[in-house]
Amino acid sequence: MMWSLLVSLALLCFGTVARAAVVTINWNVTWVWASPDGFGRPVIGINNQWPCPKLEVNVGDTLIVNLHNGLGNQTTGIHWHGINQLQTPEMDGPSGVVQCPTPPGSSVQYKFLLDEPGTFWYHSHEKGQYPDGLRGPLIVQDPNDPYKGRYDEEIVLTVSDWYHSQSIPLVQNMLSPANTRFAPPFPDTILLNDKKDVKFNFVKGKTYRVRLINMSAFASAFLWIDSHPLTMIMSDSTYLQTETAYQLHASSAQRYDFLISAIDRDSGNYPILVALDINRDFRNQTLAPAFPHNQTAWLMMDENAPLTRPTNTIDVWRPADDTHFKPLDNLAMIPAYDHLVKLDFRFCLDANGYPRACLNGKPFISQKVPSLYTAATVGENNTNPLVYGQINPIVVKKGDIVQLVINNQEAAGHPFHLHGHSFQVLDRARPYAGDWPGRDVNYNPVPNRRDTVTVWSWSHAVLRFRADNPGVWLFHCHIEWHVEMGLTASFIEGPEQLRGKQFPADHLENCRVGGVPTRGNAAGNELDPLDTTGMLTISPTGYTGATWIPPPANTVTTTPGNSTSSLARRRAASRVQRRDAVFENS
Ligand SMILES: *[C@@H]1O[C@H](CO)[C@@H](O)[C@H](O)[C@H]1NC(C)=O
Ligand SMILES: *[C@@H]1O[C@H](CO)[C@@H](O)[C@H](O)[C@H]1NC(C)=O
Ligand SMILES: *[C@@H]1O[C@H](CO)[C@@H](O)[C@H](O)[C@H]1NC(C)=O
Ligand SMILES: *[C@@H]1O[C@H](CO)[C@@H](O)[C@H](O)[C@H]1NC(C)=O
Ligand SMILES: *[C@@H]1O[C@H](CO)[C@@H](O)[C@H](O)[C@H]1NC(C)=O
Ligand SMILES: *[C@@H]1O[C@H](CO)[C@@H](O)[C@H](O)[C@H]1NC(C)=O
Ligand SMILES: *[C@@H]1O[C@H](CO)[C@@H](O)[C@H](O)[C@H]1NC(C)=O
């Protein structure tokens, strides 16, 4: 395959020498038939293959991904999870936020710097699409790895829940007034490295670095390896001071790197147990028997030896608390903050009686103009949250220190992810601790940093980060189904720096083909950005997901980036209305 060839060439040329390379990859996103657990279904793969490829690059490299949408019937777009996208917020991926959806038959180029080493992943960020398979590991190697020499080899272990049904009907069933319990779709099974039976060949006495990536759409996972303690070295992309853990709990989107030394007293085979945590309340550590989603992988040291089951099954999981891990650099808590952002999360019903997820009383509703395009085109009004519509916008000045408090006012834990940053986890209170008390006390003086944190049921977390990366960055629950319910806020970071920002021609062309306006406020009003007419304030009831609905032929002829004349503005407005009509009637 083209991509692996180029990557190997890059590795061949530069080896582990810290010299920056440009790695170019050509990906065609296509439907593929696959049956990872014996149940066949169409999945979304890359270059007619599934599982999707593992990307491996070096820190300092620039990655160019030429993505072609070969799906025929769905739009697409990719988010590079955990990558900071310094100075390239338009390459972050979320459709409707920093780019337009990529229509079938069209292409989009992503180009960005890998400024940090670590274990990352990529996934579709287009309308609940990634549970259909479009996700994979992205490993950024570090030639100056502080733990170099402490391990002999490395392996990637992905954990994912898996559904037999496609995402669109799953979300359609969820977003229905009949779903009075706000239930997300429950997975049919769990996959490890996108398979059912995974065996890792270990050599007695050798030490391995395991890069664990949770690619779930819903469930968190517990992990335990028989007789082998885990030496933690990284969480998300933050190096840790080594610490021994016996069990881990990884929520969707989180990553852990740890070392395990294959014991050398025998050449046995040891089970690696992974169990989905689908309990609503983490206080109840008993696995729900109705969802027998545990899976055993094997640490193999002798293929001829029997696979022995664990002597004692895990009845109660007691995973290590990731907020107690210490960053290797000992970076202290940022001492003060300029901006307090408090988000209360609860489920809610909209005016149509549909189940949604609300932050401070409102669900995120995708608008007509991608928010980064709004920030670039409304001039000085881009510091006014009003122009962005109901995307739960939070405007912060470049350089400000933000303290972000999440109050989880619901009965289940939720993993919250921030794009464009790692944040310090000052406090992540125990389940049922209630809301943040409003006082800055008992914070961890040397907090762990992550890009995804689990906030327990009826509890809260306090995060801090420096808003030093101008862009529009989503902050959302990484349970994909809850994103579709609206569990998202948007940081408009450094709006002054975003004024007049230019976008690549291929990105603009995709907007034109899709009939998406690229200038003006959330509703496409450019002459008067404070005119909120046409903004979406109630989520549409007819969910179509990423289904491709071509705009009427006569509406795609205007040149993108040139709707300043009133004629063009009127055209853009009518185009937008027609898009809504298509959306709501379907
Ligand atoms: C992408 O894959 C599809 C399906 O195999 C194929 O029809 C199309 O020609 C491919 N496009 C590109 C640009 O490779
Ligand atoms: C993966 O994330 C899901 C969703 O948060 C979680 O339920 C599951 O336990 C996680 N799995 C692992 C192995 O961490
Ligand atoms: C804990 O979960 C188990 C499995 O779902 C259930 O049987 C049990 O009643 C729960 N216990 C409590 C105290 O909620
Ligand atoms: C895995 O699931 C099976 C079936 O529900 C259950 O009997 C077993 O105890 C579980 N194993 C663990 C380690 O939880
Ligand atoms: C915002 O837009 C309005 C309407 O176009 C304009 O009158 C006003 O001067 C703008 N405000 C700023 C701060 O640019
Ligand atoms: C698109 O095509 C795939 C593969 O043929 C199919 O499974 C899917 O249901 C189609 N429709 C949509 C809306 O995705
Ligand atoms: C923008 O529109 C104006 C007025 O219709 C036209 O004169 C101009 O050439 C257009 N510019 C571009 C870049 O299309």
From TrEMBL:
<dbReference type="GO" id="GO:0033215">
    <property type="term" value="P:reductive iron assimilation"/>
</dbReference>
<dbReference type="GO" id="GO:0010106">
    <property type="term" value="P:cellular response to iron ion starvation"/>
</dbReference>
<dbReference type="InterPro" id="IPR033138">
    <property type="entry name" value="Cu_oxidase_CS"/>
</dbReference>
<keyword id="KW-0560">Oxidoreductase</keyword>
<dbReference type="InterPro" id="IPR008972">
    <property type="entry name" value="Cupredoxin"/>
</dbReference>
<keyword id="KW-0479">Metal-binding</keyword>
<feature type="region of interest" description="Disordered">
    <location>
        <begin position="549"/>
        <end position="586"/>
    </location>
</feature>
<dbReference type="InterPro" id="IPR011707">
    <property type="entry name" value="Cu-oxidase-like_N"/>
</dbReference>
<feature type="compositionally biased region" description="Basic and acidic residues">
    <location>
        <begin position="577"/>
        <end position="586"/>
    </location>
</feature>
<dbReference type="Pfam" id="PF07731">
    <property type="entry name" value="Cu-oxidase_2"/>
</dbReference>
<keyword id="KW-0186">Copper</keyword>
<dbReference type="Pfam" id="PF07732">
    <property type="entry name" value="Cu-oxidase_3"/>
</dbReference>
<feature type="domain" description="Plastocyanin-like">
    <location>
        <begin position="29"/>
        <end position="144"/>
    </location>
</feature>
<comment type="similarity">
    <text>Belongs to the multicopper oxidase family.</text>
</comment>
<feature type="signal peptide">
    <location>
        <begin position="1"/>
        <end position="20"/>
    </location>
</feature>
<dbReference type="InterPro" id="IPR001117">
    <property type="entry name" value="Cu-oxidase_2nd"/>
</dbReference>
<dbReference type="InterPro" id="IPR002355">
    <property type="entry name" value="Cu_oxidase_Cu_BS"/>
</dbReference>
<dbReference type="InterPro" id="IPR044130">
    <property type="entry name" value="CuRO_2_Fet3-like"/>
</dbReference>
<keyword id="KW-0732">Signal</keyword>
<dbReference type="GO" id="GO:0004322">
    <property type="term" value="F:ferroxidase activity"/>
</dbReference>
<feature type="domain" description="Plastocyanin-like">
    <location>
        <begin position="153"/>
        <end position="294"/>
    </location>
</feature>
<dbReference type="GO" id="GO:0005507">
    <property type="term" value="F:copper ion binding"/>
</dbReference>
<feature type="domain" description="Plastocyanin-like">
    <location>
        <begin position="366"/>
        <end position="496"/>
    </location>
</feature>
<dbReference type="InterPro" id="IPR011706">
    <property type="entry name" value="Cu-oxidase_C"/>
</dbReference>
<dbReference type="GO" id="GO:0033573">
    <property type="term" value="C:high-affinity iron permease complex"/>
</dbReference>
<protein>
    <recommendedName>
        <fullName>Multicopper oxidase</fullName>
    </recommendedName>
</protein>
<dbReference type="Pfam" id="PF00394">
    <property type="entry name" value="Cu-oxidase"/>
</dbReference>
<dbReference type="InterPro" id="IPR045087">
    <property type="entry name" value="Cu-oxidase_fam"/>
</dbReference>
